[in-house]
Structures are given as structure tokens and as C-alpha cells.
Design goal:
The structure holds 4 protein chains of 4 kinds. In chain B, 36% of the residues lie in helices and 24% in strands. Chain B has a 6-stranded mixed beta sheet, sandwiched between helices. In chain B, strands 1, 2, 4, 5 and 6 form a 5-stranded antiparallel beta sheet that branches. Classes of the chains: A mainly alpha, B alpha/beta, C alpha+beta, D mainly alpha.
Chain lengths: 313, 283, 532, 353
């Protein structure tokens, strides 16, 4: 065999882990290495890191406040467009129908996108994980009831459910997040249940049970950690859908409220001008597209690495 | 005696994150119309050797050899298309577990007749007749019914007999049996082996029998290669097994329970990293 | 054509070069008028119930009325339609119409005074939403036998008191004044519904067109009525297709798939102006855009605050930017072209003045209020502009966007702070707006006068309500006009309504389409004068 | 079944017919429970909406008396449990009430709009399957190569595209500028109402009537929105196909097939693909169901009078009868598609019998 690596790398690459922690770290490192060899996934990850940085430094980077209006300079084209009035300063990506700087709105909007994504990514999978593991582990009537409820939510047209929910609680970003989570959890519950069913009867769980571990302890300490990886993959792949759903709600006017610079709402505002002032809808459209694609690339790469179903040779 | 197969300095390599992994390292042997056993523990490269002969090592794995000739003609330089007429027709292989090695959604009969029709231009009816005949040859009763069955409906022993029928039907010159009985119940193991042995002998084929079971191999084969860590550490006539020199072979023998010489405690197999570094022995 | 479009076009053409040639523009048939419009508000075709813009448009072309407007000359006011002439009694309470002779319904039945009697009584008895337009004259289901009476070739209607004749006749031009074919309708009566269910999806009128098909949210198709007394129309078929997006309407118009596009954004209007073979018409409509402040809110009930707010609206800025060409500044409750309408615009954006007023009111640092607005882009834009200018005087506006019905519920329950919305007149008489903006006889919650905008904003105005009442019975046209003018000037000063704009409908049409009248501020669209 | 006794598990149970009845009964039970839950949820949504259903009917200018009369007429004065009971009773008898927005019985509206969505979703799914399946197979076979990467990017772009934006651009270029395709709506305006509706799907109806002119027109209108939906389902189907294929390609029976001397093409299509067909059916059914309910924004952009835009616009205008009815129907179709996929699974997969 080839050269033996040394140091931390060696520790992480070991065939003979010295502890459970060590083994887990080694497994993560292996996963990371194979993810790293996937250029597209890395590209996606890079974009997302960039997004986080942009969001964090939005106040410094943005040339203007996101809702500062100059009505006289509305619908100014981006700087590179030839028929733009050369006397106008700023508005690198153009201005919108109220004369606001699109670049600044995009930068501030990235915060909202991240906020939505982070919240949904927290709420939906955890709810799904909880329902799925409880159903899978306890079985019997509880399982039947919980899975029936999951089916009902699955059968419900997703956008309609989200719309109805937002309409009921009132438009707004938090409610949009809740609504999207409400439609997003059932698939996670199904995945978690399937995983739990395979884990439940393993010798390892029997052993833990024989040691006297309680229901909650088994679920939280022994089942949840094993479900996490497939859920993480699924969440990452779902992110694009979540962003698009949030944008769809914004598009229908039920997401972020004005003057919030939410990307979907920006598209919705800008679509009226799509024929003559293409940049107003296109800039946020590209932003949404880029971030969705980044999440998809990363998620797809992670699936290759983490999902046992992919059948690694 | 002309050899059916000559292998010289065969290497199978896989690139990994930590460099190149050599699964088979410089193995050489020849096969006539005989029964050659390859023995070793899991990971010793014995299955890889079998698959390398059929050139079924999947990318990015690489197969290299100074010589790998079938009937004196090189195998490594053949195109993929030429290899296809080798596989099945000249060299065939029986795999470990019929549960996995039979296509689960295809009727048994169709899978067998497909193997025949690939190499013989015959009508469906002829292929079926031939298949039924072959099923009978592997001691299956009620062949018409089995012909229509799906793999999950047959038992392990019957599955492996079906596998044998499928692999023998094009009448190959060489049969590679890769642990053909290790997934079966002990009660049917011998039955299956006997059928295979009988057919191979009847048809005058060369047999490469891959197994981790030294006793089985020695009782069943003419010659044995012992592999360790990708290398052939020793090669022996089956009846000379008790004369084995290599400490690894000795270890293997000692770790087997023997009815004729019971011991209180089986010895633990000792390994020496030096063995892995030594050159392969040539048979 | 701008850079982006040329770039895309270039790329696409390059892709297709030599493979496909660009086909000729599509063209609609010569005797067919195709219109793109938003028609998702139509819920019924029954003139006694229909009360929406798109519904009125259809009804107007299907049902003749006793009196009506001439689409070629809207300024002339109402004129004879099915009634050839009319006389007013001494006491001013009764009007007797003499029916036009020889007019047939689309079914072939003759149009008689009995049909007119049936139609008006039916509207009162059914008591659907728009019935107030007639019942405000004292007609009730109980008294119609006496108050609406046909006799031979004449129909006499008797009101509960003296009203301006113009007021009554203007109301009869509303959709609810449509005359239905009583024989056909009665044939389709189910459970005493006077054919209401059948007329929802069918028509039985004597107008220029008959309804051939109505697919909700998709299209309405009209075909010419061969029996129409006005003679043969050039457009034998009229199809109104529901198209939600302005840009889509524009594309269809540019492609020649439609003749007229009715919901164009200012940007698309500008685009169509540049296109060959297309023209843009602008027509002043009756709808007003206003902001109102709930007087239940302690801060907003302060007159100084109300006045300050009116100075914190960038009227010109909005009119000249995103509302360009679609709204014109208008600050009184009667739309221009209505009797007594004024064009005073006392308010303009004046932050300093507003700040001074706020300081006087005791809010030098401003305050925070909520504003509710319906999910419609132009309204949201206006709201954001308000938010922006008011912030400059320290007032923080929180915008809540909701669906139309949601916002309306809040408005009617008087739980809003500030409402931003539009109001369209119901019939072409000044009372239609005076009676809601400047009339609120009982401001108590129990009154539940949810139909009155003044009540909705909890604005108690006993005296002004009386002035409004006085104006409807004044029969001298000039005096009446003067009364409304005075009423509006007072309203402008003291009311919690900041009326901002009046709607201009900009329609894109193919050059060859002539004679289309949208009905101005007073009535609905007419297709019968259209030629191509 | 004759093979029962040779089956390794060989459970000896009551007759096959009884077993079938039990199975069928269970399925029907499951469907009913799901539908009941769906009804309950739609009912709750109808209740908690901060929109006044009475006001939606009587309109902005109505008087208090008119309002009260309608309130009683709708049964809103009854206890909520009674209202729910009435609701269930109505739905079971096929009465979804009158749509406030269109004035038609909701059922009639659904019968009118559903075929439009079905036509769109069907063409979309066909496109998605025809392109997505081969793409997924190719990506799996050529795993790790540039072909795989391209297939991946193509699919992921499909997932990431905001359809409302790309739809408008597509209309602008293909219809507005080039005139290659038909505009919004299902037909050119002057071609409407010519073909008598049989199935409500214009492509089928015009083909039945042998009116190829209308057929061509309908095709030119459906092609862009269906392609957009198809792209979406292509993305999903190709990724799932790839994943399934990879799983199969690493199986032992594939080696067996190769050992037999089969060509790679036959190995892939006959053996590996033969094994994923069943899984694919489920995926396709799910993606079809997804298109049926998920085409809202596409329908809005293309003025396509389908069920998605029907429910959404009804919701936005507080037309709860329409929302409830539409949702129940879509939910039912979703559930039935699932059951259907399961049945196909049982039919095609010998192991499931």
C-alpha cells in the first residue's frame, strides 16, 4: 500500500478507530473527502458560503438602504446596458419601479432567504423526524394513526395548504415559513419511519434496550443520530423547493410583506416590466436560480456520499 | 497437455483516495482439463482473480498481466465484443448466492434459455427444449414448472442448480465457481457440488474452484493455490496438502476442526506481514 | 426594442436560422372582436344580481334598458332606449315611460311594458346586492304592485318622495335596469326564483348581443342578436378572453391574436405605443383611489393629524412614475365628468407643513400606525410610497397586504387604522359617491351601516349627512351641482379621506378597430358601434 | 395461486378470494380515512380563514339584513359539529356547493377545469418520462463521466428554475417574437368552442373529431407549458432513474448476465432496467400527481384554465366551496394514483405477489 499519512489526517483516515467519537469523526472525514472530490457539490457549497458572507456583510456591501426610493430614477437599467443615461450614478444592477437599488435589495434579500431556509430546515425535518421515529419505533396503533395523518398531509395539494395556512394566519414571513414547514414535514416523517423500522429490530437496539434504556433515550440517543444523514441529504435537496415555494408565496403576495426585499416578491413586482425592463424581475430570478442550484448541487453530491441506496461499488 | 488457460503475473489494481490498492498481486498459474482450487480468506484476492480472467473488473479497476491466454490466444488484447463471445461460451462463472445472482424479475427458464440463445442461433422452442434438458441434468424434477418460476420462489439449493444449468448450457471450456456453496445449507451443499463435479467431468471442462474452505477444496480438486493478501503463497497437489510448507497454509489447516484428530482448542491463525511482501509463487 | 430583447431574439434566430421562417402575424377574423380582459369577477349574468365590472360589460351589451347612454356621445347623458319618451308627474314622484314600438327580444318575443314592469319588480323582489340602486327610491317587495305598474304601452314608477329626475333615470341606466324577456325567464323559473338560477348562465335580453358561452375565468362569447332594433352590427362575434398578466395581453396584442387588451401596465402601454399597427386609447373611468383613516383610532381622529397626512402623500411623484397614464390626481369624492365634480387639488407633498401640523397636534416625533391594502401591485406600490414619504415626517407605517376579501372584512369591521383602496361608483349619479363618502346618519357600531364608507371609518357627520340628503331631491340641475361642489370642498378639508387619484383606463387596440367605447366614468363597454 | 405451496413462507390462509376481499377492504378503509382527514382539514381551513364567507357572497355593498339572511342560509348559525356533518353529507352525495366566484356548482367547475390540468400534466409527464428515463439510465451507466455530470446539471437546473419567470421569458421569445408556438390559453381565441367537448382534453377531442387544424393549434398552445412541467418531472425522474439504476448495476445478477456474454446494452436494458421498471412506475405516478397539483404558477402564467389556478384564485378570493371541492378532488386523485401505483407494483413485480 502507498504512503501512510500522518498527523490529524492520519488520525481521521485510520482503519482502526480508538473510540466511538474517533470512528464517527473518521466517517465524517471520509464523507467529506468524497464530497470534496465532487467539483459540482463544492461549487454549490462555495456559492452558499458566498451567500452567507454577502448576507452577513449586507449593510457594508450594499450601496444603499434596501427601501430607499428615488421615484425619479425608477427603472434605471443596469450599468452595462447601452441605452442607460450615463449621468446616473450607482444602480449597478439597475433600479426597480420605485427607484430602489436592486443590488442593495438583493443583498438584503439574501438575509431573508437564509432566514427562511434556516427556519424551515429546522422546523420541518425535526417535526418529521419526531413523528417518523415515534411511529416507526412504537408501531401498532400509534404508527397507523401517525402515518395516516402523514398521508393526509401528503395528499393535500402543497401550495394550497401553504396558501390556506398563510391566508388563515395572515401574510408574513414567519407565517410563510410555518406554512412551508407544514407542507414539508411529511416526507421527512416517512424517511425517518423507514429508517427507524430497519434500525428498530437490529441487535444493537436490542442490546441497548436490554441495558435498560428508556423509550426517549433510545429514540433520541440511538435512533435519531442514525436517521440524520439521510434527512440532511433530503433537506439539502429540498432547499431549492423551499426557496421556490417561498418565492411562490411572495409571488402570490402572501410571503414577505413590503417593503421587505424578499426575492420572490421582487420577481412578482418586476414581472409586470418583464418585456421592457427585464432586469427588475431577472436579477432576483437569477439570484433565486443560483441559490437553488447551489443547494441542489450540494444536496446531490451529498446524496452520492451519504445515501446508502446509491450503491457504491 | 495443452493448457486451457495460462496466467502470468496478473495484477488487479484499484485507485483509492489513499493511493493505488493492489487486490491481486502478480498471480501466475495454468489450468488444464483439471480442477484447480483457489483458497484464501476473504479479501485475499481469490474472487478478483476469477473475475479478472473474465475481464469483469469494473472501472476504475485495472487488470494487468504479462500473459493471460485462453487456448494460447491472449485475452487482454481482445475487444469488449470479442470478450462477449468468450464469456459464457468459453469461460463461465457460478457465483456465491443464487438469491442475488439470479435476476429477480425474470422467469428462471428465460434466464437459462437466454444464456443458450446468446451463443446459439436457435428458435425459442429449441432453446426451451434445451433448457428443460439442462434443468433435468442438474437433477431438477418437474422442470416444466420450475421453468416458469421466479427466482424468489425457489430454494437456495435449487437456485444454485439453476445457476449451474445456466452456466453450463453454452458448454464452456472453463468453469469458474466462486464459492458456489457457501450460501447454501450444509445439507444441500454436497448435493450441488456433486452435480457440478459430475457435469464438469462429463464435459471435460477445466474448473477453477474458489473457496475459503480448505478441506472442501482439497477433497474436491486436483490442485490448490493458497492466496494471502493478493499473492499466491503456496501451490500444492490436493493430496499433498498435509505436506504444506508455508506457515499460512499450515495455520489454515490447523485452524480447522478435524474429526480424526480432535484438539481441545483450535489454534488461532497467525499472520506475518512479511508473507504479503514476498513474491507470488508460480505453479 | 431594448438590448435584452434583441439579444434573446438574436440568439433564438441564430438557433433557428435556415430551419424555420418567422410566420406571418396571426389575424383575427374580420367580423369578430377579440378582447383580453380580466373577467374573473363575473359570478352571474342575471342583471338583477350582476354587480361586477366585467359582468356589467357583458350585461350592457345584452340587455337594453329603459334609458341608456349613447356610446358615441357619453357627455350627452342618458337618452331613450326601450322607452321612447317619458313624462314626470306634477308632484315629481311618478315617471311614466312610453315604450318604443316594434322592438323584439332575441327570442322573437315583443318587448312590452309588461316585460319592463316584470324586470324592475323582479329586481326588487329578488333583493340581491345591487337592489339598493332601485330600493333607495322606496320600492319594496311589498309595494311593487302599486309603485311599478304597466298599463298598455306605458310603465309608471312611483317613488316614495320627490327625487331629482336625473337621479332616478341615471339609476335606471345601471345594470339592474336591464329589461328581461319575462316569458322566457318564467319558463325557466325553479322554486319561485324568478329564473335567477337560469339567468345566471343564460341571457334573455333585447340588446345588440346574446350570450353564446361563458366559461368562468376563461372566456365570454357573444354573438350578434339578429332581432336588435338598432340594426346589424359589424362585429358578429365578440370574445372576451380572461388573461391575467399585462405582459401576456401585450404579447397577444402584438402577435395579432387579440384586437384589444384592457389591462395594460404603464410599461406595456409604453411598449404598445411604439409597436406598428397598434394604438393606445385613454379613457377616464369612475374609480377613485383613496386612503382613509379610521376615526376610532385616537391619533387619527385628530383633525391636525388628518390634515398632515394629506400633505404627506407624493401625489405628483406617483402620478408621474409608476401610475403614469393610469391614474390622474383627483382629490374630491366625485369623479371627473360627474355632475358637480370639482377639480380642486389643494394638497401636495409638503413635509415641512405636515411636520408643523403634527407638532401642533402634539406628535412632533410622529407615531406608528398600520395600513391595510389589498394584494394588487399598484396599490402596494402606492402604499410603499406613502410609507416612504410619511416616514420623512416621523410616521411609521406598517403595511399589511391581504386578499381582497380579507382586507374588506377588516374594513367593514372598523378594525383598521388606515385603509388604502379604490371606490367605483355604482350608478352615474353624484349621489352614488356622496351617499357613501359623505353620508353617515348613525355612527354607532349597532347601526352596522357597512355599505357606507363614512361609517366604516367611524366618521360621525350628522350635518353633512343632511346636506347629502338635500342634494338628492333638488331638481334644478345647476343648484344641485352647486350643492355637490360645496359638499366636496367641505369634505376635502375635514374628512378622514385622502382621495388621491382617478382611474384612467388605457386600452391597447389594433389600429383597424374603431368605435370601441369603454363607457367612461359612467357606464360599461359597448361593442355594437365597433368596426374593423 | 398454484405456487403458494412452494413459496418459502407458504402461509396457508383462507381462499385467495377472501384474501383479496380483505386486501380490498383494507385499501378502501385506508382511502376513506385519508379522505375523511382531508375533508376535516379543508373544513377547518374553511372555518379558520379570516374571511367572511357571507360577505363573499353578498358583496361589499350589502345591507345588514341581506347579510343576516345569507348567514342563516349557509347554516352558520348551527353548531360547528353539525356544520361539519352537513359538509360530509354534502360531499359524499357529490354536492360541493356553489362556487361564489363563478356562480356555477363547484362540481361543474371541476369537471370543466380538471381535464385541462390533466392534459397538461399528461403531456408533461410523457415528455419527462421519454427524456428523463433514458437520461437517468445513461447517467448511471456512464457514472462519473462528463455525460453523468451534464445529465446532473440538466436535471438540477430543472429543479432550480423559477417557473413563473422562465415561463414568461419563454412566451416572450417563442410566442411573442418568433411566433413558433401558440400563445396563452388552450386554443387561439377564434378556434374556441368549435370542437364539442367529449373528454374535455382538447388534443383528444379534436383527434376524435378528426379536426387536425384544431389539433395542431392545441398542440402549439400546450407545448411550452407542458415542456416546462415536463422539465420539472424530467429532473425528478432522471435523478430517481439514475439512483435506481446504480443500485441495480452493482447487483450480482448483472455480473451473471455479463458472465453469460450479454452485450452491455442488453445487460442494461433487459436486466437492470427490467428491475427498476416497477420502482419507476411509482416515481412516475408520484410525479404525475405532483404535476396535477403543482402546476399552479404555470397555469397562471399561461392563462391555462386548470384546477391549480382554480383552487388558488378561489382561495385568494375566499371562495371556500371551490377551495374545499378542488382540494378534495385533487386529494382523491392523489390517493387513487398512489393506490394505482401500488396495484401496478403488485402486478408487475413477481416478488410482491
Amino acid at each position: 500500500m502507498s504512503i501512510q499519512p500522518t498527523g490529524l489526517r492520519a488520525w481521521l483516515l485510520t482503519d482502526t478507530p480508538t473510540s466511538r467519537h474517533h470512528a464517527r469523526m473518521a466517517a465524517y472525514y471520509q464523507a467529506w473527502l468524497s464530497l470534496k472530490s465532487n467539483h459540482m457539490a463544492m461549487f454549490g457549497l462555495g456559492i452558499l458560503l458566498l451567500l452567507v458572507i454577502l448576507a452577513a456583510f449586507a449593510p457594508i456591501l450594499a450601496p444603499a438602504a434596501p427601501d430607499f426610493q428615488i421615484l425619479d430614477l425608477r427603472l434605471t437599467p443596469p450599468v452595462w446596458v447601452s441605452d442607460r443615461d450615463p449621468n446616473i450614478d450607482g444602480f449597478i444592477l439597475g433600479s426597480d419601479s420605485l427607484g430602489r437599488d436592486i443590488l442593495s435589495r438583493l443583498l438584503y434579500g439574501s438575509r431573508i432567504t437564509l432566514y427562511i431556509v434556516a427556519l424551515v430546515a429546522l422546523i420541518a425535518p425535526i417535526a418529521g423526524l419526531f413523528v417518523g421515529t415515534v411511529a416507526g419505533y412504537t408501531g401498532g396503533w400509534i404508527d397507523i394513526i401517525l402515518m395516516r395523518i402523514t398521508d393526509i398531509f401528503l395528499a393535500f395539494p402543497r401550495l394550497v395548504l401553504a396558501l390556506a395556512f398563510v391566508a388563515a394566519l395572515g401574510a408574513g414571513i414567519e407565517n410563510a415559513v410555518l406554512a412551508i414547514s407544514l407542507t414539508a414535514w411529511p416526507p421527512y416523517a416517512r424517511i425517518a419511519r423507514a429508517e427507524t423500522l430497519t434500525i428498530r429490530n437490529s441487535d444493537y437496539i436490542h442490546a441497548v434496550r436490554l441495558q435498560g434504556a428508556g423509550f426517549i433515550r433510545i429514540i433520541t440517543k440511538h435512533i435519531w443520530p442514525l436517521c440524520i444523514s439521510s434527512l440532511v441529504v433530503r433537506v439539502t435537496l429540498d432547499m431549492a423547493g423551499i426557496i421556490l415555494a417561498a418565492a411562490g408565496l411572495g409571488f402570490l403576495g402572501l410571503g414577505a410583506q413590503p417593503p421587505m426585499a424578499e426575492w420572490g416578491a421582487m420577481i412578482s413586482e418586476g414581472r409586470r416590466f418583464i418585456l421592457d425592463h427585464w432586469w427588475v424581475a431577472t436579477m432576483p430570478g437569477l439570484a433565486i436560480f443560483t441559490v437553488s442550484l447551489a443547494f441542489n448541487l450540494l444536496g446531490d453530491g451529498m446524496r452520492d456520499v451519504l445515501d446508502p441506496k446509491e450503491g457504491k461499488s | 497437455m495443452t493448457n486451457l488457460l495460462d496466467v502470468e503475473n496478473l495484477w488487479v489494481r484499484f485507485p483509492t483516495r489513499n493511493g493505488i490498492f493492489d487486490a491481486v498481486r502478480g498471480v501466475s498459474f495454468s489450468l488444464g482439463k483439471e480442477r484447480l482450487g483457489i483458497v484464501g480468506e476473504s479479501g485475499s484476492g481469490k474472487s478478483m482473480t476469477g473475475r479478472a480472467i473474465l475481464r469483469l473488473i469494473r472501472k476504475p479497476g485495472m487488470v494487468e498481466a504479462d500473459r493471460m491466454d485462453l487456448d494460447g490466444v491472449p485475452l487482454l488484447t481482445r475487444t469488449e465484443k470479442e470478450m462477449r463471445s468468450v464469456r459464457g461460451q468459453k469461460i463461465s462463472m457460478i457465483m456465491q448466492d443464487p438469491k442475488f445472482s439470479l435476476n429477480p424479475v425474470m422467469r428462471v427458464g428465460k434466464q437459462i434459455s437466454e444464456a443458450y440463445r446468446l451463443h446459439n442461433r436457435v428458435s425459442k422452442a429449441e432453446a426451451k427444449a434445451k433448457t428443460l434438458e439442462m434443468l433435468e441434468a442438474v437433477a431438477i424434477r418437474d422442470v416444466e414448472r420450475v421453468y416458469e418460476m421466479y427466482p424468489h420462489e425457489v430454494s437456495g439449493g435449487m437456485g444454485q442448480r439453476i445457476m449451474i444449468a445456466m452456466m453450463l448450457i453454452p458448454n464452456p471450456e472453463i468453469m469458474i465457481a466462486d464459492e458456489p456453496t457457501s450460501a447454501l445449507d450444509v445439507s444441500v451443499q454436497m448435493q450441488v457440488l456433486e452435480i457440478m463435479d459430475k457435469l464438469v467431468v462429463e464435459r471435460g471442462m477445466g474448473l477453477i474452484f474458489i473457496s475459503h474452505d480448505l478441506n472442501l477444496v482439497s477433497s474436491f480438486c486436483d490442485r490448490v493455490l493458497i492466496m494471502y493478501s493478493g499473492r499466491v503463497v503456496e501451490t500444492l497437489k490436493a493430496d499433498q496438502l498435509h505436506n504444506a510448507q508455508h506457515p499460512y497454509t499450515r495455520g489454515l489447516l490447523d485452524s480447522l476442526p478435524r474429526l480424526d484428530a480432535p484438539v481441545d482448542r483450535l489454534s488461532v491463525l497467525q499472520r506475518d506481514p512479511e508473507w504479503a511482501k514476498a513474491e507470488s509463487v508460480t505453479s | 426594442m431594448n438590448a435584452f430583447r434583441s439579444a434573446i431574439l438574436g440568439a433564438a434566430v441564430a438557433l433557428a436560422a435556415g430551419v424555420t421562417t418567422v410566420p406571418a402575424m396571426a389575424e383575427t377574423p374580420a367580423n369578430m372582436l377579440v378582447i383580453a380582459n380580466r373577467i374573473d369577477d363575473i359570478t352571474t349574468m342575471d342583471p338583477a344580481q350582476s354587480f361586477e365590472f366585467a359582468g356589467s360589460d357583458v350585461s350592457h351589451n345584452i340587455y337594453s334598458k329603459l334609458v341608456n347612454f349613447d356610446p358615441a356621445d357619453l357627455d350627452a347623458g342618458y337618452g331613450p332606449d326601450l322607452a321612447a319618451s317619458w313624462t314626470v308627474s306634477e308632484d315629481g314622484r311618478s315617471i311614466t315611460f312610453t315604450m318604443r314600438e316594434g322592438v323584439l327580444f332575441a327570442s322573437g318575443n315583443p318587448v312590452t311594458a309588461a316585460d319592463a314592469e316584470y324586470s324592475l319588480r323582479r329586481a326588487i323582489i329578488l333583493n340581491k346586492t345591487p337592489s339598493f340602486i332601485l330600493s333607495q327610491f322606496g320600492f319594496t317587495p311589498e309595494n311593487v304592485e302599486e309603485t311599478i305598474v304597466a298599463d298598455g304601452n306605458t310603465l309608471t314608477i312611483t317613488t316614495d318622495q320627490r327625487y331629482a329626475t336625473s337621479f332616478v333615470l341615471n339609476c335606471l341606466t345601471a345594470t339592474i335596469g336591464g329589461i328581461v324577456d319575462s316569458k322566457v325567464v318564467m319558463e325557466h323559473e325553479v322554486d319561485g326564483d324568478m329564473g335567477n338560477e337560469w339567468l345566471r348562465t343564460h341571457t334573455a335580453g333585447s340588446g345588440a348581443y346574446v350570450l353564446t358561452s361563458w366559461k368562468p375565468n376563461e372566456s365570454v362569447t357573444l354573438t350578434a342578436n339578429p332581432n336588435w332594433y338598432g340594426g346589424e352590427v359589424a362585429m358578429q362575434r365578440v370574445v372576451v378572453r380572461h388573461v391575467q398578466e399585462s405582459s401576456t395581453q401585450r404579447l397577444m396584442l402584438e402577435r395579432g391574436d387579440i384586437d384589444v387588451a384592457r389591462n395594460l401596465s404603464p410599461e406595456d402601454v409604453a411598449g404598445i405605443r411604439e409597436a406598428d399597427g397598434l394604438v393606445v386609447d385613454s379613457e377616464l373611468r369612475g374609480r377613485l383611489m383613496y386612503m382613509s383613516m379610521n376615526q376610532k383610532n385616537e391619533i387619527l381622529s385628530n383633525p391636525k393629524v388628518v390634515e398632515a397626512m394629506k400633505y404627506l402623500i407624493d401625489y405628483e411623484g406617483m402620478q408621474d412614475s409608476f401610475l403614469n397614464g393610469q391614474y390622474v390626481i383627483h382629490q374630491a369624492f366625485l369623479p371627473a365628468t360627474y355632475l358637480g365634480a370639482i377639480d380642486d387639488t389643494p394638497y401636495h407633498l409638503d413635509i415641512e407643513k405636515a411636520k408643523a401640523l403634527l407638532a401642533e397636534a402634539g406628535y412632533p416625533d410622529g407615531f406608528e400606525v398600520n395600513l391595510v391594502v389589498r394584494e394588487a401591485q399598484e396599490r402596494i406600490d402606492i402604499a410603499q410610497s406613502l410609507q416612504n414619504t410619511m416616514a420623512q415626517a416621523g410616521i411609521t407605517i406598517n403595511i399589511t397586504v391581504g386578499t381582497a376579501k380579507q382586507i374588506l372584512g377588516e374594513y367593514r369591521a372598523r378594525t383598521h387604522d388606515i385603509y388604502l383602496g379604490a371606490w367605483g361608483p355604482d350608478y352615474p349619479d353624484p349621489n352614488t359617491n356622496a351617499g357613501t363618502f359623505a353620508y353617515n346618519p348613525d355612527n354607532s357600531d349597532e347601526a352596522g351601516a357597512t355599505g357606507l364608507l363614512a361609517w366604516r371609518n367611524a366618521w360621525a357627520i350628522p350635518e353633512m349627512s343632511n346636506e347629502t340628503l338635500a342634494a338628492v331631491i333638488e331638481n334644478d340641475r345647476d343648484t344641485r351641482a352647486a350643492m355637490y361642489e360645496a359638499l366636496q370642498r367641505e369634505h376635502q378639508q375635514v374628512s378622514p379621506f385622502a382621495i388621491m387619484f382617478q382611474k384612467i383606463e388605457q386600452t391597447g387596440r389594433a389600429e383597424n378597430v374603431q368605435g370601441l367605447s369603454l363607457g367612461g366614468a359612467i357606464t360599461a363597454v359597448s361593442y355594437w358601434n365597433v368596426t374593423k | 395461486m398454484a405456487l403458494a405451496e412452494t413459496s418459502p413462507k407458504g402461509r396457508r390462509k383462507s381462499s385467495p378470494f377472501t384474501r383479496f376481499l380483505i386486501k380490498a377492504g383494507k385499501t378502501v378503509m385506508a382511502i376513506s380515512v385519508t379522505m375523511l382527514g382531508l375533508l376535516f382539514m379543508t373544513f377547518v381551513i374553511g372555518r379558520v380563514m379570516p374571511v367572511d364567507p357571507v360577505l363573499s357572497i353578498v358583496g361589499e355593498r350589502a345591507s345588514q339584513e341581506m347579510y343576516d339572511a345569507e348567514f342563516i342560509k349557509l347554516g352558520l348559525d348551527k353548531p360547528i359539529v353539525v356544520q361539519f356533518f352537513y359538509y360530509i353529507r354534502d360531499v359524499v352525495t357529490g354536492n360541493f356547493g356553489i362556487s361564489l366566484r363563478t356562480g356555477f356548482p363547484v362540481w361543474n367547475d371541476i369537471v370543466r377545469v380538471f381535464p385541462a390540468t390533466m392534459e397538461l400534466a399528461t403531456i408533461g409527464t410523457i415528455l419527462g418520462v421519454l427524456i428523463g428515463v433514458p437520461l437517468g439510465v445513461l447517467a448511471a451507466v456512464k457514472r462519473g463521466t462528463w455525460i453523468d455530470q451534464i445529465a446532473r446539471v440538466v436535471a438540477l437546473i430543472g429543479y432550480s428554475m423559477p417557473v413563473f419567470w422562465i415561463g414568461l421569458i419563454g412566451l416572450l421569445v417563442l410566442y411573442g417574437m418568433l411566433g413558433w408556438i401558440g400563445g396563452p390559453g388552450r386554443l387561439d381565441v377564434f378556434n374556441e368552442d368549435i370542437i364539442p367537448p367529449v373528454t374535455g382534453m382538447i388534443l383528444i377531442d379534436s383527434a376524435l373529431a378528426r379536426d387536425w387544424f384544431i389539433f395542431k393549434d392545441a398542440l402549439s398552445h400546450i407545448i411550452l407549458p407542458a415542456s416546462l412541467l415536463g422539465y420539472y418531472s424530467l429532473a425528478y425522474i432522471s435523478r430517481m432513474t439514475r439512483s435506481f439504476m446504480l443500485e441495480q448495476l452493482s447487483s450480482e445478477y448483472i455480473t451473471t448476465a455479463r458472465v453469460k456474454g450479454m452485450s452491455e446494452r442488453a445487460v442494461i436494458w433487459k436486466h437492470a432496467f427490467g428491475n427498476i421498471k416497477v420502482q419507476l412506475i411509482t416515481v412516475i405516478a408520484l410525479s404525475y400527481a405532483g404535476l396535477l397539483e403543482g402546476s399552479v404558477l404555470t397555469e397562471i402564467i399561461f392563462s391555462w384554465p386548470g384546477i391549480g389556478s382554480y383552487i388558488t384564485t378561489s382561495l385568494l378570493s375566499a371562495d371556500m366551496n371551490a377551495v374545499m371541492g378542488g382540494t378534495v378532488v385533487v386529494g382523491l386523485v392523489f390517493v387513487l394514483l398512489n393506490v394505482f401505483a401500488e396495484l401496478l407494483y403488485k402486478f408487475f413485480d413477481p416478488r410482491a405477489k
